[in-house]
Amino acid sequence: MGGETLDPPAGSVGDEAVLRLEIQGASKHFAGVAALKDVSLSVRAGEVHAVLGENGAGKSTLMNIATGTLQPDEGEIRVGGEVAATLTPARATALGIAIVHQHPAVMPDLTVQENLQVALPAAAFAGGARQAAERMLARVGLEVDLADRVETLTLAERHLLEIAKAFAVDPRVLILDEPTAPLGNDASELLFDLVRSAVAEGTSVVYITHRLAEVRELADTVTVLRDGRLRGNAVVADISDQELLNLIVGRELESTFPAKSGGDGEENLSVEGFSGPGFGDVSLVARRGEIVGVAGVVGNGQSQLLRGLAGLEETSGTVSVGGRRLDHRELLGEAAYMPADRITEGLMRSLSVRENAALSALSSFRSAGFLSRRREVSEVRGSLGSLSVRAPSLEAPVSALSGGNQQKVVISRALLADPPLLLADEPTQGVDVGARSEIYTILRAASERGVPVIIASSDAKELEGLCDRVVVMSRGRVVETLVGEEVTEERIVSAAVTSTAETVSAAAARRATRSSRLRRFVEGDYSPSALLVVLMLALAAYITPGNERYLSAFNISNVLLAATAIGFIALGQNLALLTGGIDLSVGPLAGFLVVVSSFYVLDRSGPAKVLLGFVLMVLVAAVVGLVNGSLVRFARFTPIAATLTLYIALGGFAFLLRSTQGGYISLGFQNAVNLRFGPLPVAFVVFVVLAVVMELALRRRRWGWRLRGVGSDEDAARRVGIDVDRTVIGAYVCSSLLAFLGALMFMGQYGIGDPSQGSAFTLTSVTAVVLGGTSLLGGRGTFIGTLAGAVLLQQLLNATTFLGLGSTSQYYFQGLLILVAAVVYTLARSRRRGRPAAG
Q: Where are the transmembrane segments (predicted)?
């Protein structure tokens, strides 16, 4: 039966009147390895079509082709009977195709509402954006504040947000890729109800899962893939579970769960009075050969407990392993922890499969004091082989693997470390049925070797089959402990849903945190700006009593003019940093543009020549930005390498045009740039207005959401339909055009073409942006902060003069200020990884 292809169900092929989505003869290769080979899929209106297969069978690749995220090497896609050529995520959305990704396509640095608005068409928010967003969340039972940053949400909440986005557009074709993997029973049942309602209204649903029970409950038709090929297609009612399993794995499976321990071994784990963020007063024991399960409704402290046992949270109470008491630091160094969120916490996606698997066990690969590559490769290959990990090679980037195979790499790393304590949070999430059996066997073998194994799972059936002892948690506390024959699905679910345990204090803190505007402000993007204002006021208060000229109109005007010059450049630098890049060319570009202007904007020049000079400056700026962006996106240069290339080139071109200073800028133009009303320069007012307008666009317009979205998570941004290339290139072009505005200010302040000017402005612009709170990793920052950073920098330089300090001290102050800012911002923005339990 393993190699047999079943006949397709009647009406599923060839009936053009009912076909909603067709993929015909799709093939896709990655680095020469075939992910799909001549696969076809037909989905009718008003049906749930399940797609099954092992990890790496090609399911997600097929769905990425259906939604335009990937382009097939061969094959054709039809939507509603029409050929959809060169399908993109945006085009797929317009055609009525929505997808819930296995790894949610959410951008962590954006708020919940911003994630909804950047991914969905404006029509979805008719009648008020906030009200519409609240309805979307209520529809899927997601109780979070719209202003919460997505990085603070749990994995289950991120999946519910992804589901909310998909149902919000009332799609004609809805693709669900492992939608229930991180969800509890209540959320899963709600999702099933939503699917049934959508199908009743004519929506076509493609449902990818590893859970046969869900196929039986929801699906009408099933298609099976194996090794990138179509292996079977049938009506669900006409095929047995055993036949499906044989098609999925291509072989007969033995019993899913290994035999349990007798429970008479010596005690090897004792936890007493254990408390931490999200859980309290937890006590449990384990004996040699036992696997301990942690159960409960999702969000009741199970994950937090495992994080505490792994030493990742500050805790109280005692933990003894093998009779040896371990403190917080020892747990952190010795316990092996497999997180539920493998993407955020479990993997280093830029490293290879081998590097990810071997990372925790490097010390065991040493030979004569050196790392033995041969031994490392041998043991990693053996471990991955025992889990049937499918990868092009050990050196392939781990990000190229399917979700289930990535999970296996995480498990392999934990096992290779040979830890004294093994902790697994949802270890089989997104893993196929064949690999689950292998994982269970490996976990059982570890427990029989004497390693305490603790597993948190939302699947009560899994806990029943695998665990010898189960502690059930509710609101952060253990409400029941089941041992031996008491460990049944019914007892586990009953204990979880009927508990009346009191909520631990952290649960109340969670709700208070989410509703606290002060806490949200402290962790938000504007707190650095507020801190800079406080520093400016403190510095002025310190200097003024000793020197009354410090607050004179003349001094204030000079500081603001200098801040405006560097501020325009810093606004452009902020654009590049928000996308996750950097623009080292802005300083030399501003200096080069001043040199260009020194040939045209002169007292003896006529209006036409002056205008030509400004046009040339704008064109040069635009071309430089276009080159920078193209090198980054199309030539695959790193942002530093691309913009450093222009940094050097522009400095050289400036000296080619003028080997020494020369060309005096028109006095009329200088006077216009330096025009002021009292102590307030007009140019500074323009700078402030521009910063405010850009800030409003950053927060309230799709342009700003896309910009921050790309910097926050480029892959997620692409999957929601953002044109990443256009966004990044546009940011670099705008950065260069803002450098042009900075050049206008330097023309007014210096009044001469100087080829040596410009280089220092790059570092100063980066300093102003970083002080303003923009992340060097992208996704977070404000233009208001950049404004405040530019002013504080110039105030600081000005203050050294009034304090009688040397020029060297300016660099010390700048360095100290950046160091303090980095420490303060990091502490204020530290992610709350230990989320309190849901109340």
A: 526-544, 550-572, 608-627, 634-657, 677-698, 728-752, 758-777, 784-805, 811-828
Domain with CATH 3.40.50.300 in the chain: 19-96+171-249
Tokens of 638: 């790193």
Separation of alpha carbons 755 and 279, rounded Å: 63
**What's the rounded mean pLDDT across residues 437-446?**
86
Q: Rounded to whole angstroms, how far apart are CA atoms 229 and 633?
A: 33
Q: Among 155-169, 249-263, 307-321, name the one with the lowest average pLDDT.
A: 249-263
706-716 per-position pLDDT tens digit:
999 999 999 99
Element (H, E) at 749: helix 724-750
Query: CA-based diameter of the chain, in Å?
Result: 100
Q: At the topology level of CATH, where does 19-96+171-249 sit?
A: Rossmann fold (3.40.50)
Alpha carbon 61 to chain centroid, angstroms? 20
SS3 readout for 250-299: CCCCCCCCCCCCCCCCCEEEEEEEEEECCEEEEEEEEECCCEEEEECCCC
Cα 481 to Cα 157, 264, 374, 477, 839: the distances in Å are 27, 17, 46, 11, 21
Q: Which is higher by pLDDT, 618 or 363?
A: 618
Pair 681, 560: CB distance under 8 Å: yes
Cα angle: 357, vertex 363, 369; to 5 degrees: 135
Residue whose C-alpha is closest to residue 702's, from 733, 732, 725, 723? 723
Residue in this structure with the two tokens 């399993």, named with its chain if needed? 245
The tokens describing 353, both together, are: 């499969």
Q: Which pair of structure tokens corresponds to residue 208?
A: 């990818």
Residue 817 and residue 137: Cα distance in Å, rounded?
Answer: 42
**What is the residue whose two structure tokens read 């060169």?**
86
- Answer yes or no: are the C-beta atoms of 164 and 137 closer than 8 Å: yes
Q: Within its chain, how far is the Cα of 797 from the centroid? A: 38
Report CA 672 to chain centroid distance, whole Å. 46
Cα–Cα distance for residue pair 791/571, rounded to 1 Å: 13
Helices (H), 524-638: 527-543, 553-578, 586-597, 607-633
Tokens of 654: 């400036």
**How would you classify the pairing of strands 19-30 and 74-79?**
antiparallel
Residue 138: pLDDT over 90: yes
**H/E element holding 752?**
strand 752-753
Measure the CA–CA gap between 416 and 418, rounded to whole angstroms.
Answer: 5
Q: What DSSP state is assigned to residue 365? A: G
Least confident window among 215-219, 523-527, 629-633, 749-753 = 523-527
Token pair recorded at residue 65:
């082709």
Q: 13-27, 207-221, 363-377, 807-821: which has the minimum mean pLDDT?
A: 807-821
Q: How far is CA 813 from CA 94, 215, 529, 658, in A?
A: 53, 64, 18, 34
Token pair for 367:
């030979």
Classify residue 333 by burial, with Cβ atoms within 10 Å: 0-12, 13-18, 19+: exposed
What average pLDDT score do residues 119-123 get? 90
End-to-end CA distance of the chain: 49
Q: Does domain 524-828 have CATH number 1.10.3470?
A: yes
Average pLDDT over every residue of 551-576: 94
- The angle formed by the CA atoms of residues 724, 350 and 314, to the nearest 5 degrees, is 105
Burial of 833 (0-12, 13-18, 19+ CB in 10 A): middle
Query: Would you put residue 68 in left (φ > 0), alpha (ψ -120 to 50) or beta?
Result: left
What are the φ and ψ backbone dihedral angles of 655, each rounded to 5 degrees? -75, -25
For 133, phi and psi rounded to 5 degrees? -65, -40
Burial 753-774 (b: 16+ CB within 10 A, else e): bbbebbbebbebbbbbbbbbbb
Integer Cα distance of 636 and 642 in angstroms: 9
Mean pLDDT rounded to a whole number for the chain = 86
Cα Rg, the chain, nearest whole Å: 30
